Every structure is written in C-alpha cells, then in structure tokens.
Sequence to fold (410 residues):
Amino acid sequence: MHSHSLLSKQWTLKEFIALYGNDYPLLQRFCDTEQDPQWHSEGDVEVHTEMVLQETYRLIEDTLAHWRDDDKVTLLLAAIFHDYAKPICTTKRIINDVERTVAPKHESVGASLLMHCTPPFNLTSSQWRDVISLTAYHHIPKLLVVKEADYPPYFRLSRQVPSLEMLYYLEVADMRGRECDDKAKQLEIMEIFRLFAEDAKCFSSWEYKDLSKQVALTFNTSSSPNEMAGLAQRVQDTGMIHLEEGRIYAMEEELSIAFNYLEQSHVIVLCGVAGSGKSTWVECLPSSFERIELDGIRETLKAGREGQSDNDAVLRTAMDKLRNALREKRHVVWDATGYRRDFRSRVINLAVAYVAYTEIVAFQCDKQTLLQRNKFRKHPVPENILTDMIAKYQWPEVGEAHRLTWIDSE
Fold:
C-alpha cells in the first residue's frame, strides 16, 4: 500500500491498528494505557491519539493544504506514533504531594523501538526516520520555551527533525487533541516557540548554504580538491556544533580557527546491532583508516569471541589502540555495535580530547531482516542476545559527534 493512501480518505486510528497492529504491537495497548486525568481528561492513549490524528487531518486540509503530499504523510504518521512507548513507560509518581500518571522518556524510548520496525506504507528509510525523529523530540518545543532558551538549542533541534515547522504543527495537533484546564496556555507556549524559531531564522529550514564557498575561497591554496571538499565538510560540521554549544556566535568565526582541521584524526564510530551491515561497509573505507574491532580483539583473549568475561580487557586494549592512533593523528574506525549512547560517548569523548573530528555512522535495518541475516553470518549471535540489543538500542542524536551519517542497510 502506498503512503499517499493516508491522504485518500480520513483514516481513524482503529483502522490503522487493524492494518498494522501486528507490526507495531504497542499500538494495540493504547486502549489499556491510562493518562493523568488533569493533563489528559479526554481518556486513555488511544482516545488521545485518535483526537491528535483527526486534528492533524484538519491541519493538512486547511492551514497546510499547500504542503507536499510526502510531508503531510510524515505529519500524519508522527501523530499516530508520537506516544508509541507510553504503554511501557507509563507509571505513577508523587508530584507536589499528589500521585500523578506520567510516562518518562516515552519519546526517546518510542523512537528507539520504532527504529527496527518495518516502515509502514512502503516508506523509504529516510522518510521513516523523519517520522521517528518527530516522535523523539515532540516534547522539546515546550521545554525550550519554559526554560527561556536562547537561539543555539533551536539551531540544534532544527537539525534533529525534518523542520521545526513540522514539529510545531505536530505539537499544535497534540495540544488540540487533549482536554485539560491549561489547554489555551499550552497552545500559547507553542506560539511563542514558533515566533522565537522564526526570529532565529530556523523555523522552516536551517542551512549553511554559503559556508562551503567561503571555505573554498579562504583555503584556495589547498593542494588537492578532495582535501578541500573534506575540509569544507569538517568546518561546516564543527562550526554547527560550536554554534549550537555557544562557543562561537557566527559561522564566519569558524574560518579563523579551521586551518588545522586537515591535520585532525577522523574517528568514525559505528552504530548498529549485529547484522546491520557494519563490517561490509567498513571494508569499503580507504586504507588510511585503522580498524579497531572489538570482536577481533576478543578472539585473541582467553574467553574467545563468544566470551563476555573478558569485556573489560577488550575495552582497555581497544582504548589503548585508539589513544595511540590519536597521538599519531591517524584515522580510525571503531568497529563495534555502539547501539547504546554510553558505548559511543566514551570513544567520542576521548577523540574530542585529542581534537579529532568525530562521526557516527548509523545503520538502519528492520528486525525481521536482522534476524534473517543472522542465520547466515559466519558468527551468528544468539537470537535472544540480538533481540536484547534491539530492545536496548538508543537512537543516535545530532550533536553526539561532529557528524551523524545514516546508512540504509536494506
């Protein structure tokens, strides 16, 4: 079924669940997942999501009628999935001496779970990531306003999602699709978010179109066009991080400190569970990259490749190899699963300490494909271990490293 069938008629949530409930099992638990009566007096998660979906249809038929059909579909699917993890995240907490129903971290948990689901309606991997990213960050606009954040966090957020405009309209539908005493105030917060994002000039897009040209003019004595292209990418990626962290206030400032970027180590950290295609991709890297493979190191130790008792020794050996490479400014690819953020951050933090350029290369692959591939691997992973990796996977974010690159492992 083509994704544009979502636009051929006004779907209900029940119709979507009837079609895709087996693929996204938490949808079937929406009707049994309660919400806090003060914040969501309309009822359970299914009732709320249905209201949000219908509000989204009203938006795309009126205010957003000029949008491309693909963008309308993305917004509709984000409305369906924005609370996907509430059935497993909902709990009770005492807030100001009152017991409340809350769902902490349901946004990031939902995004991480959806990453290994097969995209609905034959969406491309890129389109599916757009839906997932809106799920992951739909709570952030309100936080930015409440915290009176300055421009840099808006810049960062604009790179996490298809656009802040799309995120804004998802949250407008989310707020309209609920019943609560402060509904008008919540909608006002979203208007403040929109106005501030527009003032920051990152509401519809946030691009650095002229930066590469500026770099080329500044470093026009470079001996190699390929080196020039690589430098331009590093300056742009590093400049965006520095701007979003408040270390510079205009992208032009990056040019004055970019002269040494060509001498940096380039450290690639892979992110993908077993069978997602990491090793095949690494084989295509230039020979200038030193491969630090944790499984390869494990094979040399007493417990062998399948043993887990030597994990500390494996990591120490790998980190020592990384330090040596960084001291000598060699390029490195860290070949491990990296499916959890703490796995990635320990490598990235060390690389940044040595003033290296860091990149996360993330592999997107659905669970069924992963399980099928695993059967034919030279070293298959026990299915329960692979399933556990998928369950604990943490969505990689823009800003964890200087650059985030996605590989569609289909």
Observations:
- The longest strand covers residues 357-364.
- Strands lie at 91-95, 98-102, 266-271, 289-293, 331-335, 357-364, 403-408.
